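Chapter review: from sequence to fold.
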Amino acid sequence: MSFGIPTRNGLSLGLGAVPTLATNFGLPIPSLSLDYTIPSDGTPGVVPGFYQVDNGFGVLTQTTFSSLITFSRASNATRFSPTGQLEYAPHNLLLQSQNFTTSWTSPNTDVTSDTTLAPDGTTTADTVSDDATNDVHVLSQTIAISGQVTFSVFAKNGSGSRYLTIGVNSATSNYATATFDLSTQTSTQTLIAGYGGAVTTNVSASAEGFYRYSMTVTTATASNARIGLSNTSTFANFSRGFDRYVGNGSSIILWGAQLTVGPNALDYTPTTTAVVYGPRFDYDPTTLAAKGLLIEEQRTNLVLYSEQFDNAVWTKTRSSITSNTVVAPDGTLTGDALITDTTVTDTHRIELLSVAFTSGTTYTLTLFAKAQSSLNLQLVFLTAAFGISLRAAFNLQTGQTLVSSSSITAKTTNVGNGWFRCEATATATATATSGFHISLINTFAATAAATSFTGDGTSGIYIWGAQLEAGAFATSYIPTTTAATTRSADIASIGTLSPWYNATEGTLYGEGSWVGLVASRFAVGLNNSASASADFISIQTNPTTVTTGRGGVTAGGVTQAAMNITNAYTASVLFKAANAYQQDNFGFTVNGATPASDTSGTVPTVDRMQLGAIGTTTANIWIRRITYTPRRLTDAELQSLTS
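The C-alpha coordinate string follows.
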Protein backbone atom coordinates (compact mmCIF):
# COMPACT_ATOMS: atom_id res chain seq x y z
CA MET A 1 0.00 0.00 0.00
CA SER A 2 1.30 3.48 -0.80
CA PHE A 3 0.13 7.01 -0.34
CA GLY A 4 0.47 9.96 -2.69
CA ILE A 5 2.12 12.56 -0.47
CA PRO A 6 1.53 16.04 -1.90
CA THR A 7 4.49 18.36 -2.25
CA ARG A 8 4.82 22.10 -1.92
CA ASN A 9 4.71 22.55 -5.69
CA GLY A 10 1.47 20.59 -6.04
CA LEU A 11 3.08 17.39 -7.38
CA SER A 12 2.66 14.02 -5.73
CA LEU A 13 5.52 11.98 -4.31
CA GLY A 14 4.85 8.24 -4.10
CA LEU A 15 6.29 6.86 -0.88
CA GLY A 16 5.58 3.33 0.25
CA ALA A 17 3.68 2.86 3.52
CA VAL A 18 4.28 6.31 4.97
CA PRO A 19 1.91 8.15 7.29
CA THR A 20 -0.33 10.91 6.01
CA LEU A 21 0.63 14.10 7.81
CA ALA A 22 -2.15 15.89 9.67
CA THR A 23 -0.91 19.21 8.31
CA ASN A 24 -1.71 18.10 4.75
CA PHE A 25 -5.43 18.64 5.10
CA GLY A 26 -6.45 22.04 3.73
CA LEU A 27 -3.15 23.67 4.65
CA PRO A 28 0.14 24.35 2.83
CA ILE A 29 2.54 21.43 2.91
CA PRO A 30 5.51 22.10 5.23
CA SER A 31 9.07 22.02 3.97
CA LEU A 32 10.19 20.25 7.16
CA SER A 33 8.19 17.64 9.10
CA LEU A 34 9.28 15.66 12.15
CA ASP A 35 6.90 13.12 13.66
CA TYR A 36 8.07 11.27 16.77
CA THR A 37 4.97 9.10 17.15
CA ILE A 38 5.78 6.73 14.27
CA PRO A 39 7.20 3.41 15.58
CA SER A 40 10.41 1.84 14.34
CA ASP A 41 10.18 -0.29 11.20
CA GLY A 42 12.71 -2.69 12.73
CA THR A 43 15.70 -1.68 10.62
CA PRO A 44 18.78 -2.04 12.84
CA GLY A 45 20.35 1.30 13.71
CA VAL A 46 17.38 3.39 12.51
CA VAL A 47 15.56 5.20 15.32
CA PRO A 48 11.76 5.47 15.25
CA GLY A 49 9.93 8.51 13.91
CA PHE A 50 9.17 9.92 10.47
CA TYR A 51 11.27 12.71 8.99
CA GLN A 52 10.73 14.66 5.79
CA VAL A 53 12.63 17.62 4.42
CA ASP A 54 12.49 19.67 1.23
CA ASN A 55 15.12 18.40 -1.17
CA GLY A 56 15.69 21.84 -2.70
CA PHE A 57 13.26 21.31 -5.56
CA GLY A 58 10.02 21.67 -3.63
CA VAL A 59 9.69 17.92 -3.01
CA LEU A 60 9.40 16.43 0.45
CA THR A 61 11.99 13.68 0.81
CA GLN A 62 12.01 11.08 3.54
CA THR A 63 15.18 11.06 5.63
CA THR A 64 16.40 9.66 8.95
CA PHE A 65 16.81 11.07 12.43
CA SER A 66 20.60 10.86 12.42
CA SER A 67 21.03 12.41 8.98
CA LEU A 68 18.90 15.41 9.94
CA ILE A 69 19.26 15.89 13.70
CA THR A 70 22.38 16.17 15.83
CA PHE A 71 21.70 14.58 19.20
CA SER A 72 23.87 14.12 22.28
CA ARG A 73 23.64 13.36 25.98
CA ALA A 74 26.73 12.76 28.07
CA SER A 75 25.22 10.04 30.25
CA ASN A 76 22.77 7.19 30.24
CA ALA A 77 19.09 7.98 30.82
CA THR A 78 15.87 6.02 31.28
CA ARG A 79 12.60 5.92 29.37
CA PHE A 80 9.53 3.70 29.11
CA SER A 81 9.81 1.30 26.17
CA PRO A 82 7.07 0.55 23.59
CA THR A 83 6.09 -2.40 25.82
CA GLY A 84 5.77 -0.19 28.91
CA GLN A 85 8.97 -1.35 30.59
CA LEU A 86 11.27 1.14 32.27
CA GLU A 87 14.73 0.80 30.73
CA TYR A 88 17.74 2.76 29.66
CA ALA A 89 17.35 4.40 26.27
CA PRO A 90 19.22 2.64 23.44
CA HIS A 91 22.95 3.16 23.90
CA ASN A 92 26.22 1.47 23.08
CA LEU A 93 29.31 1.41 25.30
CA LEU A 94 31.51 -0.17 22.60
CA LEU A 95 33.48 1.81 20.04
CA GLN A 96 33.57 1.10 16.30
CA SER A 97 30.58 -1.20 16.46
CA GLN A 98 30.72 -1.95 12.71
CA ASN A 99 34.46 -1.76 12.08
CA PHE A 100 36.34 -4.61 13.72
CA THR A 101 39.71 -3.43 12.39
CA THR A 102 39.67 -0.31 14.61
CA SER A 103 39.47 -0.10 18.44
CA TRP A 104 39.41 -3.91 18.50
CA THR A 105 42.51 -6.05 19.09
CA SER A 106 42.44 -9.31 17.16
CA PRO A 107 44.75 -11.99 18.59
CA ASN A 108 44.98 -15.01 16.31
CA THR A 109 42.31 -13.71 13.92
CA ASP A 110 42.24 -11.99 10.54
CA VAL A 111 39.59 -9.35 9.82
CA THR A 112 38.49 -8.32 6.32
CA SER A 113 36.31 -5.21 6.31
CA ASP A 114 33.09 -4.57 4.42
CA THR A 115 32.74 -7.93 2.69
CA THR A 116 29.00 -8.52 2.95
CA LEU A 117 25.64 -6.78 3.06
CA ALA A 118 24.76 -6.00 6.66
CA PRO A 119 21.27 -6.08 8.21
CA ASP A 120 20.82 -2.38 7.43
CA GLY A 121 21.41 -2.99 3.70
CA THR A 122 24.90 -1.47 3.55
CA THR A 123 28.08 -3.38 2.68
CA THR A 124 29.61 -2.98 6.13
CA ALA A 125 29.71 -6.49 7.60
CA ASP A 126 33.19 -7.90 8.29
CA THR A 127 34.61 -11.40 7.78
CA VAL A 128 36.59 -12.71 10.77
CA SER A 129 38.82 -15.78 10.25
CA ASP A 130 40.94 -17.88 12.60
CA ASP A 131 44.65 -18.42 11.97
CA ALA A 132 46.74 -21.58 12.64
CA THR A 133 47.68 -20.65 16.22
CA ASN A 134 46.73 -23.08 18.97
CA ASP A 135 44.99 -20.54 21.17
CA VAL A 136 41.83 -18.49 21.46
CA HIS A 137 40.76 -16.63 18.30
CA VAL A 138 39.04 -13.45 19.45
CA LEU A 139 38.33 -9.77 18.92
CA SER A 140 38.72 -7.76 22.12
CA GLN A 141 37.94 -4.24 23.26
CA THR A 142 38.84 -2.59 26.56
CA ILE A 143 35.83 -1.41 28.56
CA ALA A 144 34.92 -0.43 32.13
CA ILE A 145 31.55 -1.76 33.27
CA SER A 146 29.91 -2.77 36.52
CA GLY A 147 26.55 -4.36 37.24
CA GLN A 148 24.07 -6.01 34.90
CA VAL A 149 25.05 -5.75 31.22
CA THR A 150 23.94 -7.19 27.89
CA PHE A 151 26.39 -7.91 25.06
CA SER A 152 25.10 -8.53 21.53
CA VAL A 153 26.33 -8.88 17.95
CA PHE A 154 24.80 -9.67 14.55
CA ALA A 155 26.42 -12.76 13.02
CA LYS A 156 26.10 -15.50 10.42
CA ASN A 157 28.17 -18.36 9.02
CA GLY A 158 31.19 -17.67 6.86
CA SER A 159 33.39 -20.51 5.63
CA GLY A 160 34.04 -23.77 7.47
CA SER A 161 32.13 -24.69 10.63
CA ARG A 162 32.67 -22.32 13.50
CA TYR A 163 30.59 -21.40 16.55
CA LEU A 164 30.26 -17.88 17.96
CA THR A 165 31.26 -17.03 21.53
CA ILE A 166 30.71 -13.62 23.13
CA GLY A 167 31.57 -12.51 26.63
CA VAL A 168 33.08 -10.10 29.14
CA ASN A 169 35.95 -10.58 31.54
CA SER A 170 38.17 -8.74 34.02
CA ALA A 171 40.78 -11.43 34.66
CA THR A 172 41.57 -15.04 33.81
CA SER A 173 39.30 -16.21 36.60
CA ASN A 174 36.53 -13.60 36.19
CA TYR A 175 34.45 -14.02 33.04
CA ALA A 176 31.01 -14.65 31.60
CA THR A 177 30.50 -16.07 28.10
CA ALA A 178 27.87 -17.62 25.86
CA THR A 179 28.42 -19.85 22.81
CA PHE A 180 26.01 -20.11 19.86
CA ASP A 181 25.55 -22.50 16.93
CA LEU A 182 25.23 -20.26 13.85
CA SER A 183 23.61 -23.06 11.83
CA THR A 184 20.73 -23.68 14.23
CA GLN A 185 20.70 -20.23 15.87
CA THR A 186 20.75 -21.75 19.35
CA SER A 187 22.78 -21.25 22.50
CA THR A 188 24.98 -24.27 23.19
CA GLN A 189 26.62 -23.31 26.48
CA THR A 190 27.17 -20.52 28.97
CA LEU A 191 30.13 -20.17 31.32
CA ILE A 192 30.52 -17.87 34.33
CA ALA A 193 33.25 -17.54 36.95
CA GLY A 194 33.96 -14.83 39.50
CA TYR A 195 30.70 -12.97 38.89
CA GLY A 196 27.38 -13.10 40.72
CA GLY A 197 24.09 -14.17 39.21
CA ALA A 198 23.84 -16.01 35.93
CA VAL A 199 24.23 -15.73 32.16
CA THR A 200 21.10 -15.70 30.00
CA THR A 201 20.94 -15.69 26.20
CA ASN A 202 18.68 -14.59 23.37
CA VAL A 203 18.64 -15.01 19.58
CA SER A 204 16.51 -12.95 17.17
CA ALA A 205 16.29 -12.96 13.39
CA SER A 206 17.42 -9.97 11.35
CA ALA A 207 17.89 -9.13 7.66
CA GLU A 208 20.37 -10.46 5.07
CA GLY A 209 20.59 -13.86 6.80
CA PHE A 210 21.90 -12.41 10.06
CA TYR A 211 20.73 -13.22 13.56
CA ARG A 212 21.31 -11.07 16.60
CA TYR A 213 22.98 -13.07 19.39
CA SER A 214 22.99 -11.65 22.90
CA MET A 215 23.97 -12.58 26.44
CA THR A 216 23.11 -10.92 29.72
CA VAL A 217 25.21 -11.32 32.85
CA THR A 218 23.51 -10.39 36.12
CA THR A 219 26.52 -8.88 37.89
CA ALA A 220 29.89 -8.22 36.30
CA THR A 221 32.84 -5.92 36.84
CA ALA A 222 34.62 -6.24 33.53
CA SER A 223 37.49 -4.62 31.65
CA ASN A 224 37.16 -6.42 28.32
CA ALA A 225 34.43 -7.33 25.84
CA ARG A 226 35.36 -10.21 23.52
CA ILE A 227 33.93 -11.91 20.43
CA GLY A 228 35.46 -15.23 19.48
CA LEU A 229 35.35 -18.17 17.10
CA SER A 230 34.89 -21.62 18.63
CA ASN A 231 35.72 -25.02 17.18
CA THR A 232 33.14 -26.95 19.21
CA SER A 233 29.83 -26.17 20.85
CA THR A 234 30.83 -27.21 24.39
CA PHE A 235 34.60 -26.93 24.67
CA ALA A 236 36.82 -28.10 27.53
CA ASN A 237 40.09 -26.45 26.47
CA PHE A 238 39.42 -22.79 27.11
CA SER A 239 40.83 -19.52 28.42
CA ARG A 240 38.61 -16.90 30.08
CA GLY A 241 35.55 -18.70 28.73
CA PHE A 242 36.77 -18.86 25.10
CA ASP A 243 37.75 -21.93 23.07
CA ARG A 244 41.45 -22.64 22.57
CA TYR A 245 42.11 -24.60 19.35
CA VAL A 246 44.23 -24.75 16.14
CA GLY A 247 42.57 -22.65 13.44
CA ASN A 248 42.46 -23.36 9.71
CA GLY A 249 41.14 -20.14 8.16
CA SER A 250 37.46 -20.81 8.84
CA SER A 251 35.36 -17.68 9.34
CA ILE A 252 32.21 -16.07 10.61
CA ILE A 253 30.67 -12.77 9.51
CA LEU A 254 30.03 -10.04 12.10
CA TRP A 255 28.29 -6.69 12.29
CA GLY A 256 26.87 -4.38 14.92
CA ALA A 257 28.46 -5.20 18.27
CA GLN A 258 26.71 -3.56 21.22
CA LEU A 259 27.14 -3.45 24.99
CA THR A 260 24.29 -2.02 27.05
CA VAL A 261 23.49 -1.59 30.73
CA GLY A 262 20.56 -3.69 31.93
CA PRO A 263 18.79 -6.92 30.97
CA ASN A 264 17.96 -6.10 27.33
CA ALA A 265 19.94 -5.80 24.11
CA LEU A 266 17.96 -2.61 23.20
CA ASP A 267 17.65 -1.20 19.67
CA TYR A 268 20.95 -1.40 17.84
CA THR A 269 22.92 1.85 18.22
CA PRO A 270 25.94 2.27 15.92
CA THR A 271 29.14 3.89 17.15
CA THR A 272 32.43 5.08 15.70
CA THR A 273 34.98 6.86 17.92
CA ALA A 274 32.80 7.51 20.99
CA VAL A 275 30.23 5.87 23.23
CA VAL A 276 26.70 6.79 22.15
CA TYR A 277 23.78 7.48 24.47
CA GLY A 278 20.80 7.63 22.14
CA PRO A 279 17.67 9.78 22.06
CA ARG A 280 14.71 8.76 24.21
CA PHE A 281 11.46 7.97 22.44
CA ASP A 282 9.19 7.63 25.44
CA TYR A 283 5.90 5.74 25.81
CA ASP A 284 3.01 5.79 28.27
CA PRO A 285 3.63 2.75 30.51
CA THR A 286 -0.08 1.89 30.79
CA THR A 287 -1.61 2.81 27.41
CA LEU A 288 1.67 2.21 25.48
CA ALA A 289 0.91 5.32 23.40
CA ALA A 290 3.93 7.17 22.03
CA LYS A 291 4.65 10.31 24.07
CA GLY A 292 7.39 11.58 21.74
CA LEU A 293 11.04 12.59 21.94
CA LEU A 294 11.90 13.22 25.59
CA ILE A 295 14.12 16.24 26.24
CA GLU A 296 15.14 16.95 29.85
CA GLU A 297 17.49 19.25 31.68
CA GLN A 298 20.33 17.94 33.83
CA ARG A 299 19.17 16.49 37.14
CA THR A 300 20.88 14.59 40.00
CA ASN A 301 19.41 11.82 42.14
CA LEU A 302 20.67 12.57 45.66
CA VAL A 303 19.53 9.20 47.03
CA LEU A 304 22.12 6.46 47.46
CA TYR A 305 21.29 2.82 46.69
CA SER A 306 18.03 3.83 45.06
CA GLU A 307 16.94 0.20 44.53
CA GLN A 308 18.70 -1.51 47.45
CA PHE A 309 16.71 -0.67 50.56
CA ASP A 310 18.42 -3.45 52.50
CA ASN A 311 21.64 -1.40 52.36
CA ALA A 312 22.85 0.15 55.62
CA VAL A 313 22.38 3.73 54.32
CA TRP A 314 18.64 3.13 54.81
CA THR A 315 17.79 3.15 58.52
CA LYS A 316 15.07 0.64 59.42
CA THR A 317 12.76 1.69 62.22
CA ARG A 318 10.34 -0.98 63.46
CA SER A 319 10.40 -2.48 59.97
CA SER A 320 12.39 -4.83 57.76
CA ILE A 321 13.29 -5.15 54.09
CA THR A 322 12.91 -8.37 52.14
CA SER A 323 14.93 -7.74 49.00
CA ASN A 324 14.24 -8.86 45.43
CA THR A 325 10.75 -10.25 46.06
CA VAL A 326 8.69 -8.80 43.20
CA VAL A 327 9.18 -7.79 39.56
CA ALA A 328 10.06 -4.09 39.44
CA PRO A 329 8.97 -1.55 36.78
CA ASP A 330 12.14 -2.35 34.81
CA GLY A 331 11.12 -6.00 34.47
CA THR A 332 13.76 -7.36 36.85
CA LEU A 333 13.20 -9.19 40.13
CA THR A 334 14.54 -6.29 42.20
CA GLY A 335 11.45 -4.88 43.91
CA ASP A 336 11.78 -4.95 47.72
CA ALA A 337 9.13 -5.53 50.39
CA LEU A 338 8.94 -3.03 53.27
CA ILE A 339 7.38 -5.02 56.14
CA THR A 340 6.18 -3.97 59.59
CA ASP A 341 7.48 -5.49 62.80
CA THR A 342 5.11 -6.38 65.65
CA THR A 343 5.57 -3.26 67.75
CA VAL A 344 2.35 -2.10 69.38
CA THR A 345 1.04 1.33 68.30
CA ASP A 346 4.10 2.93 66.77
CA THR A 347 5.51 3.97 63.41
CA HIS A 348 7.02 1.55 60.88
CA ARG A 349 9.39 3.12 58.37
CA ILE A 350 12.75 3.34 56.66
CA GLU A 351 14.60 6.62 56.39
CA LEU A 352 17.51 8.30 54.67
CA LEU A 353 19.00 10.92 57.00
CA SER A 354 22.17 12.19 55.31
CA VAL A 355 20.90 14.58 52.60
CA ALA A 356 22.30 18.13 52.43
CA PHE A 357 19.30 20.41 51.82
CA THR A 358 19.67 24.09 50.86
CA SER A 359 17.28 26.74 52.12
CA GLY A 360 14.98 28.10 49.41
CA THR A 361 15.55 25.14 47.10
CA THR A 362 12.55 23.07 46.02
CA TYR A 363 12.97 19.30 46.13
CA THR A 364 10.93 16.47 44.63
CA LEU A 365 10.96 13.01 46.18
CA THR A 366 9.67 10.05 44.19
CA LEU A 367 9.31 6.36 44.91
CA PHE A 368 7.85 3.49 42.89
CA ALA A 369 5.42 1.68 45.19
CA LYS A 370 2.94 -1.19 44.91
CA ALA A 371 0.37 -2.63 47.29
CA GLN A 372 1.36 -5.83 49.11
CA SER A 373 -1.48 -5.75 51.65
CA SER A 374 -4.02 -3.15 52.79
CA LEU A 375 -1.25 -0.86 54.02
CA ASN A 376 -0.35 2.32 52.16
CA LEU A 377 2.57 4.73 51.79
CA GLN A 378 3.52 8.04 53.32
CA LEU A 379 6.51 10.16 52.25
CA VAL A 380 7.74 12.62 54.89
CA PHE A 381 10.16 15.55 54.56
CA LEU A 382 11.74 16.07 58.01
CA THR A 383 11.65 19.11 60.28
CA ALA A 384 15.33 20.14 60.29
CA ALA A 385 15.28 21.35 56.67
CA PHE A 386 11.56 22.01 56.19
CA GLY A 387 10.49 23.65 59.48
CA ILE A 388 7.83 21.03 60.16
CA SER A 389 7.35 17.45 59.04
CA LEU A 390 5.67 17.67 55.65
CA ARG A 391 3.68 14.56 54.81
CA ALA A 392 2.15 13.14 51.64
CA ALA A 393 0.02 10.01 51.78
CA PHE A 394 -0.57 7.67 48.83
CA ASN A 395 -3.34 5.11 48.44
CA LEU A 396 -1.67 2.22 46.59
CA GLN A 397 -5.01 0.68 45.65
CA THR A 398 -6.46 3.77 43.94
CA GLY A 399 -3.57 6.19 43.39
CA GLN A 400 -5.29 8.88 45.48
CA THR A 401 -3.07 11.37 47.35
CA LEU A 402 -3.45 13.51 50.49
CA VAL A 403 -1.06 16.16 51.89
CA SER A 404 -0.57 17.53 55.38
CA SER A 405 -0.39 21.22 54.39
CA SER A 406 -0.20 23.61 51.46
CA SER A 407 3.60 23.53 51.81
CA ILE A 408 3.76 20.11 50.13
CA THR A 409 2.23 18.82 46.91
CA ALA A 410 1.77 15.23 45.77
CA LYS A 411 0.75 13.19 42.74
CA THR A 412 0.85 9.62 41.49
CA THR A 413 1.57 8.20 38.06
CA ASN A 414 0.34 4.73 37.16
CA VAL A 415 3.27 2.87 35.58
CA GLY A 416 1.56 -0.49 35.14
CA ASN A 417 1.49 -3.91 36.81
CA GLY A 418 0.13 -2.38 40.03
CA TRP A 419 3.02 0.08 40.43
CA PHE A 420 2.61 3.81 41.04
CA ARG A 421 5.34 6.42 40.92
CA CYS A 422 4.54 8.46 44.02
CA GLU A 423 5.75 12.07 43.98
CA ALA A 424 6.03 14.70 46.75
CA THR A 425 7.42 18.23 46.36
CA ALA A 426 8.38 20.80 49.02
CA THR A 427 10.74 23.77 49.50
CA ALA A 428 13.43 23.70 52.19
CA THR A 429 13.24 26.53 54.72
CA ALA A 430 16.67 25.91 56.24
CA THR A 431 20.07 24.72 55.13
CA ALA A 432 20.61 21.47 56.97
CA THR A 433 21.69 17.87 56.69
CA SER A 434 18.40 16.07 57.11
CA GLY A 435 16.35 13.50 55.27
CA PHE A 436 13.01 11.84 54.69
CA HIS A 437 10.90 8.89 55.79
CA ILE A 438 9.25 6.17 53.75
CA SER A 439 6.48 5.19 56.14
CA LEU A 440 3.79 2.53 56.25
CA ILE A 441 0.29 3.73 57.14
CA ASN A 442 -2.80 1.72 57.95
CA THR A 443 -5.23 4.64 57.64
CA PHE A 444 -5.23 6.66 54.45
CA ALA A 445 -4.62 10.13 55.88
CA ALA A 446 -1.78 12.62 55.89
CA THR A 447 -1.80 13.24 59.63
CA ALA A 448 0.88 12.21 62.09
CA ALA A 449 -1.49 9.93 64.04
CA ALA A 450 -2.13 7.82 60.98
CA THR A 451 1.44 6.50 60.97
CA SER A 452 1.17 4.83 64.40
CA PHE A 453 -0.35 1.35 64.46
CA THR A 454 0.37 -2.20 65.56
CA GLY A 455 2.28 -4.20 62.98
CA ASP A 456 1.82 -7.89 62.33
CA GLY A 457 5.32 -8.69 61.06
CA THR A 458 4.10 -9.78 57.61
CA SER A 459 2.16 -6.90 56.04
CA GLY A 460 3.76 -4.08 54.09
CA ILE A 461 4.22 -2.59 50.63
CA TYR A 462 6.56 -3.12 47.70
CA ILE A 463 9.06 -0.34 46.94
CA TRP A 464 11.66 0.37 44.28
CA GLY A 465 13.54 3.26 42.68
CA ALA A 466 13.75 6.14 45.17
CA GLN A 467 14.76 9.53 43.80
CA LEU A 468 15.33 12.95 45.40
CA GLU A 469 16.13 15.78 43.02
CA ALA A 470 16.31 19.57 43.18
CA GLY A 471 13.32 20.77 41.16
CA ALA A 472 9.61 21.49 41.36
CA PHE A 473 8.62 18.27 39.57
CA ALA A 474 9.96 14.79 38.95
CA THR A 475 11.99 13.91 35.90
CA SER A 476 12.83 10.47 34.55
CA TYR A 477 14.22 7.93 36.98
CA ILE A 478 17.99 7.99 37.65
CA PRO A 479 19.31 4.75 39.23
CA THR A 480 22.06 5.05 41.85
CA THR A 481 24.32 2.82 43.90
CA THR A 482 27.21 4.14 46.02
CA ALA A 483 26.94 7.82 45.06
CA ALA A 484 24.54 10.48 43.85
CA THR A 485 24.17 10.18 40.08
CA THR A 486 23.67 12.91 37.50
CA ARG A 487 21.75 12.53 34.25
CA SER A 488 23.07 14.98 31.64
CA ALA A 489 20.81 17.21 29.56
CA ASP A 490 19.44 16.01 26.23
CA ILE A 491 20.70 18.18 23.36
CA ALA A 492 19.04 18.05 19.93
CA SER A 493 19.33 20.43 16.99
CA ILE A 494 19.21 20.75 13.22
CA GLY A 495 22.45 22.42 12.22
CA THR A 496 21.52 23.68 8.78
CA LEU A 497 18.28 25.29 7.62
CA SER A 498 19.02 24.97 3.91
CA PRO A 499 17.04 24.51 1.72
CA TRP A 500 13.77 24.35 3.67
CA TYR A 501 13.94 27.66 5.60
CA ASN A 502 12.61 31.01 4.33
CA ALA A 503 14.35 34.02 5.91
CA THR A 504 11.54 36.38 4.90
CA GLU A 505 8.46 34.63 6.28
CA GLY A 506 7.41 31.29 7.71
CA THR A 507 5.52 29.35 10.38
CA LEU A 508 6.99 27.17 13.11
CA TYR A 509 4.66 24.51 14.58
CA GLY A 510 5.27 22.40 17.68
CA GLU A 511 3.20 19.72 19.38
CA GLY A 512 3.97 18.01 22.67
CA SER A 513 3.51 18.03 26.42
CA TRP A 514 5.61 19.53 29.20
CA VAL A 515 7.10 17.20 31.81
CA GLY A 516 6.91 20.17 34.16
CA LEU A 517 6.33 23.89 33.68
CA VAL A 518 9.23 26.33 34.17
CA ALA A 519 9.41 29.98 33.15
CA SER A 520 11.07 30.81 29.81
CA ARG A 521 11.57 27.26 28.58
CA PHE A 522 11.46 26.53 24.88
CA ALA A 523 9.60 23.73 23.14
CA VAL A 524 11.30 24.50 19.83
CA GLY A 525 13.08 27.48 18.37
CA LEU A 526 14.89 28.81 15.33
CA ASN A 527 17.97 30.68 16.50
CA ASN A 528 21.51 31.77 15.76
CA SER A 529 24.37 29.52 16.81
CA ALA A 530 26.53 32.58 17.52
CA SER A 531 23.87 34.47 19.49
CA ALA A 532 21.33 31.95 20.72
CA SER A 533 19.54 34.19 23.22
CA ALA A 534 19.76 37.34 21.07
CA ASP A 535 18.23 36.09 17.82
CA PHE A 536 15.39 33.57 17.85
CA ILE A 537 11.85 32.64 16.87
CA SER A 538 10.32 30.42 19.52
CA ILE A 539 7.44 28.47 21.01
CA GLN A 540 7.94 28.74 24.77
CA THR A 541 6.52 29.26 28.24
CA ASN A 542 5.97 32.80 29.53
CA PRO A 543 8.83 34.29 31.62
CA THR A 544 6.47 34.92 34.57
CA THR A 545 3.25 32.91 34.17
CA VAL A 546 4.31 29.42 33.17
CA THR A 547 0.85 28.28 32.10
CA THR A 548 0.81 31.03 29.48
CA GLY A 549 2.09 30.13 26.04
CA ARG A 550 4.40 32.60 24.35
CA GLY A 551 5.46 33.04 20.74
CA GLY A 552 8.72 34.93 20.95
CA VAL A 553 10.67 36.82 18.31
CA THR A 554 13.94 38.53 19.26
CA ALA A 555 16.48 40.16 16.94
CA GLY A 556 19.82 41.59 18.00
CA GLY A 557 18.87 41.14 21.64
CA VAL A 558 15.75 43.29 21.24
CA THR A 559 12.28 41.80 21.62
CA GLN A 560 10.37 42.16 18.35
CA ALA A 561 7.25 40.23 19.36
CA ALA A 562 6.14 38.63 22.64
CA MET A 563 2.73 37.15 21.88
CA ASN A 564 0.93 35.40 24.75
CA ILE A 565 -1.96 32.93 24.95
CA THR A 566 -3.20 32.54 28.53
CA ASN A 567 -3.96 29.15 30.11
CA ALA A 568 -2.28 27.45 27.19
CA TYR A 569 -0.20 24.87 29.05
CA THR A 570 -0.84 22.20 31.67
CA ALA A 571 1.93 19.79 32.63
CA SER A 572 1.64 16.39 30.90
CA VAL A 573 -1.26 17.62 28.72
CA LEU A 574 -0.88 17.77 24.93
CA PHE A 575 -0.57 21.23 23.35
CA LYS A 576 -0.35 22.38 19.73
CA ALA A 577 1.27 25.76 19.09
CA ALA A 578 2.34 27.78 16.04
CA ASN A 579 4.43 30.95 15.67
CA ALA A 580 4.21 32.76 12.30
CA TYR A 581 6.63 35.50 11.29
CA GLN A 582 6.99 38.15 8.62
CA GLN A 583 8.31 41.71 8.74
CA ASP A 584 5.79 43.71 10.86
CA ASN A 585 3.38 40.75 10.79
CA PHE A 586 3.65 38.16 13.56
CA GLY A 587 1.07 35.71 14.91
CA PHE A 588 0.98 33.04 17.62
CA THR A 589 -1.62 30.65 18.94
CA VAL A 590 -2.04 27.51 21.04
CA ASN A 591 -4.78 24.87 20.76
CA GLY A 592 -6.90 26.78 18.26
CA ALA A 593 -7.23 29.98 20.30
CA THR A 594 -7.67 33.33 18.56
CA PRO A 595 -4.08 34.24 17.59
CA ALA A 596 -2.15 36.93 19.41
CA SER A 597 -0.41 39.26 16.97
CA ASP A 598 2.23 41.94 16.65
CA THR A 599 2.36 44.30 13.66
CA SER A 600 5.76 45.84 14.24
CA GLY A 601 9.07 44.06 14.25
CA THR A 602 12.07 42.68 12.41
CA VAL A 603 12.74 39.04 11.54
CA PRO A 604 16.00 37.81 13.16
CA THR A 605 18.83 36.10 11.32
CA VAL A 606 18.89 32.42 12.31
CA ASP A 607 20.91 29.41 11.19
CA ARG A 608 19.68 26.39 13.18
CA MET A 609 16.72 24.81 14.93
CA GLN A 610 16.92 23.67 18.55
CA LEU A 611 14.54 21.10 19.96
CA GLY A 612 13.51 21.64 23.58
CA ALA A 613 15.98 24.48 24.09
CA ILE A 614 17.33 27.86 23.14
CA GLY A 615 21.05 28.04 23.79
CA THR A 616 21.83 26.03 26.94
CA THR A 617 18.41 26.56 28.57
CA THR A 618 16.89 23.09 28.30
CA ALA A 619 13.20 22.38 28.72
CA ASN A 620 11.56 19.27 30.15
CA ILE A 621 9.22 18.18 27.40
CA TRP A 622 7.92 15.37 25.23
CA ILE A 623 8.03 16.57 21.61
CA ARG A 624 5.52 14.78 19.39
CA ARG A 625 5.68 16.77 16.14
CA ILE A 626 7.47 19.74 14.63
CA THR A 627 6.79 21.26 11.22
CA TYR A 628 8.00 24.33 9.39
CA THR A 629 6.08 25.99 6.55
CA PRO A 630 8.00 28.54 4.44
CA ARG A 631 5.32 31.21 4.53
CA ARG A 632 3.43 33.18 7.16
CA LEU A 633 0.17 31.28 7.59
CA THR A 634 -2.96 33.38 8.00
CA ASP A 635 -4.54 33.63 11.44
CA ALA A 636 -7.33 31.32 10.29
CA GLU A 637 -4.74 28.79 9.13
CA LEU A 638 -2.91 29.05 12.46
CA GLN A 639 -6.12 28.24 14.30
CA SER A 640 -6.87 25.30 12.00
CA LEU A 641 -3.33 23.97 12.34
CA THR A 642 -3.39 23.99 16.15
CA SER A 643 -6.98 22.83 16.72
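Two observations follow directly from the output. Residues 125 and 255 are 5 Å apart (CA to CA). The longest strand covers residues 137-157.
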